[in-house]
Amino acid sequence: MVGTLLLIKPNLNLHFSCVSSQHPSHFTLKPKAAVTITNPHPYWASLQADIEAHLRQAIPIKEPLVVFQPMHHLAFSAPRTTVPALCLAACELVGGHRHLAMPAASALLLIQAATHAHEHLPLTKPRPIPEPEPVHLYAPNIELLTGDGIVPFGFELLARSDDPAHRNSERILRVIIEISRAVGTQGALNAQYIKTLGSGAQSDGKGLSHVERIKRAAEKKEGGLHACSAACGAVLGRGSEEEIERLRNFGFYVGMMHEMLKRKENNEEEEEEVIIDEVRNLALKELQLFKDRDVEAISTFINF
Amino acid sequence: MVGTLLLIKPNLNLHFSCVSSQHPSHFTLKPKAAVTITNPHPYWASLQADIEAHLRQAIPIKEPLVVFQPMHHLAFSAPRTTVPALCLAACELVGGHRHLAMPAASALLLIQAATHAHEHLPLTKPRPIPEPEPVHLYAPNIELLTGDGIVPFGFELLARSDDPAHRNSERILRVIIEISRAVGTQGALNAQYIKTLGSGAQSDGKGLSHVERIKRAAEKKEGGLHACSAACGAVLGRGSEEEIERLRNFGFYVGMMHEMLKRKENNEEEEEEVIIDEVRNLALKELQLFKDRDVEAISTFINF
């Protein structure tokens, strides 16, 4: 239930754990129109196509094939998410050309692909593995090695994009920190710890219920990765600190919305569509800072 | 047999695959004194102690313990190598204070520790696993997650060391590229592909014998990691390009020597101590550029 996922009760304020403290979000529920997932929007599809074209250049299928074929397969067969494309969209919103954010978008796609491969590795001791199970084209040791190899390659792509003529070294280093944290043990990987180990993986030490753990994991993974992606796009597009933080919040809400919609599509949630709409409103509120710009494109991430 | 490891035959030139093309190494064998491994030199021990103290600050045991205890354990229980310490030694040789190279040394230690943990993960399909088998304090999924988390943390440490006052952003980005390549599918991970998949993992497509594969894997792993480490230390210590390349070559020879000595200690090699001495001579030759400086400290990496 989406409502339960967000720990919503009528007339109670909603409080997320991961949003920038600069713009805390509290709101009271009001019924709104229902939302459904439709096909990917052409803007998202265009951004995604650009990222994949960039990656096809970066990871050609070349000799030795035993190394590069699995790498190519892993990068292009992992489930697509809106995380990398949001990075480019945020960059464009703050006035940067999307190519400025391409290395960060590519690194995010690659690291998510590596995480997906490792999540489905067949270990001797069973563990919770997310559905659907991918087709394993390669032996477990190759899947392990390929995931391990693709992560530093993502950081290499980022570091290589340094261009002294653009004086962007410090922005790239900032993005490396953002991505390291968002994908690491305090970020998306923390979601796996929470799912595996329960509330002991929480730094606040609170005993969380199963439903609360799902919510916290979503905040760390989908919320945190989208927040990071949008913030990185804004950093690389030379956005102001205010713009970066607003887009970080926007990204967080995008991620939470997508997670809710996914759970709804998978019939894990049955009600409280109204909550999704409330999160969309919170996201839209973050875009008010950009009211003099064309926010239509990035709004497609929350309007289906 | 060390001689076989290096494909040495009397009166034939020795040719390594990984050394900088700036200073190719060919030499004809001449018998020299035997070498043995003794206890770690106090200089190495001092550098290693500094790195571990730095990491104890960077990875405190804190809440949530289920996340940070395994991370701490993984970082400090993996077998010690000379790779991280060589980074500080190279930095000092070019005139930098060792703290300048500390983030790179720490990242190298962490990424090596992650590789070690993943090398010993119990997968459902058996694979060649290096001896000795470590004590598995944690379940396989936690070992997998911890290894996955520690790699981005290593890159984060590096990126965080950026200090605009020192204008070192570009050097740090260069080091991130160096380390990404040295640990990735073209570097140390390639050694695992070669060991697992045979000569198909070679980009030159040559059919290699078992012995040749061991040599090539050592060049990629021990040679490549030490070469990277020394080059990174020189970069961060503000060495010249000539100094960086000489130290890269020196590091490569250090790595190859250590691998030969390890194999000898493990009774995998029985003869050809002379070869180790020849590699030492090649390493010393690279230090000639620094003849006006005190090379005694860094020479301890090749004088046992």
Please characterize this protein's 3D structure.
Chains A, B: Its cofactor is Mg(2+). Chains A, B: GO terms for molecular function: metal ion binding; prenyltransferase activity. The structure is a homodimer of 304-residue chains. The first copy, chain A, is mostly helical. The first copy, chain A, has a domain at 44-129 and 138-259: Farnesyl Diphosphate Synthase (Orthogonal Bundle), CATH 1.10.600. Helices cover 59% and strands 0% of the residues of chain A. Chain A has 12 helices and no strands. In chain A, helix 4 (83-93) runs antiparallel to helix 5 (102-119), helix 5 packs antiparallel against helix 6 (140-160) and helix 7 (169-183) runs antiparallel to helix 9. Chain A is globular. The two termini of chain A are 20 Å apart. Chains A and B meet through helix 3, helix 5, helix 6, helix 7 and helix 8 of A and helix 3, helix 5, helix 6, helix 7 and helix 8 of B.
